[in-house]
Amino acid sequence: MNAYPLLTVIRDSFYFNNMLNASMQGFAGLQNYASVLQNENFQAALRNTVVWTLLSVAGEYVLGLISALALNQNIRFRAVFRGIVIIPWVVPIVVAGMTWSWMLDPDFGIINYLLVKVGLLEQSYYWLGEMDTALLTVIFVNIWRSFPFFTISLLAGLQSVSRDTLEAAAIDGAGVRRRFFSIVLPQLKTVSVTIVFVHLIWTAINFDFIWVMTEGGPLYATETLPIQIYRYAMQDYNFGQASALASMMLGFMMIVFLINFMNTSRKTKR
Questions:
Q1: CA 100 → CA 67, 84, 89, 129, 266, distances in Å?
Q2: Which of 53, 58, 206, 244 could tie 32 with a disulfide, CB 3.0–4.6 Å?
Q3: Cis peptide bond N-terminal to 106, omega within 30
């Protein structure tokens, strides 16, 4: 029963199904796939998807690791700081996206006001309206919202690192950097690989965050493959091509999953 929608999407990808053109019905073979690949915006959307996914996950991991290391220290009000850092993650995506859109507005946004006030900008800048900065701006906001997930996961991993081992290494003359790269980071490998792999998939198929902030604009500068699927289905009403692109993404995700699974299984056997 749970597989029915998935099988329906795969089936529809091989049939003409355009609600605006009832005359185009029947078996399409690979025509829907060919039309998707020949779309003038496909390569740009694919490139945006790769950039959006890799930069987001890399930023989330680095910021999450830094904050986890900081929160793992024996400092005052540590519990308070641990509670504060989770706030971006619990904020609904729609609320976070709309709030940042208002904050980045060139006319009344607080971000532009502060940057102009301190002299970093001469005048307000439309961060979400310029093709050169729109995607990077959305990536920045996505990192802000998602890094707490990495913080919590890595902080849990840091709790398992033996303090006796770290103290022994320090006594033997190992510096902070040496202890981090030789002891701490290797023990975080399992949790790191898991959360990075999961978030690569989550980010690649993310639709709502970009849609709330830019709707794929300006001029398709932030359009990713999930947004392109939405345009096919909900704007062009071409469910055949929407299903074809969705099936292509599903196939790619399955290949990545199988590669990771086989690699993990091989290491476990060793």
A1: 22, 18, 14, 13, 44
A2: 244
A3: no
| DSSP E strands, the chain | 15-17, 25-27
Take residue 162 and report the two structure tokens written for it: 């033996």
pTM equals 0.91
The single residue listed with the structure tokens 């690949």 is 37
Contact 195, 151 (CB under 8 A): no
| pLDDT value, residue 1 | 63
Structure tokens of 87? 């706030």
* Beta carbons of 191 and 65 less than 8 angstroms apart: no
Rounded CA separation 248/36 (Å): 10
Fold of 30-269: MetI-like fold (1.10.3720)
Q: Where are the domains of the chain?
A: 30-269
pLDDT tens-digit map of 245-269 = 999 999 988 888 888 778 777 777 7
Q: Is 265 exposed, middle or buried (0-12, 13-18, 19+ CB in 10 A)?
A: exposed
Tell me the C-alpha distance between 155 and 149, whole Å.
10
Backbone dihedral angles phi then psi of residue 129, each to the nearest 5 degrees: -110, -5
Give 89-116 pLDDT, tens digit per residue: 989 999 999 999 999 999 899 999 999 9
Q: What is the dihedral of CA 84, 85, 86, 91, to 10 degrees?
A: 80
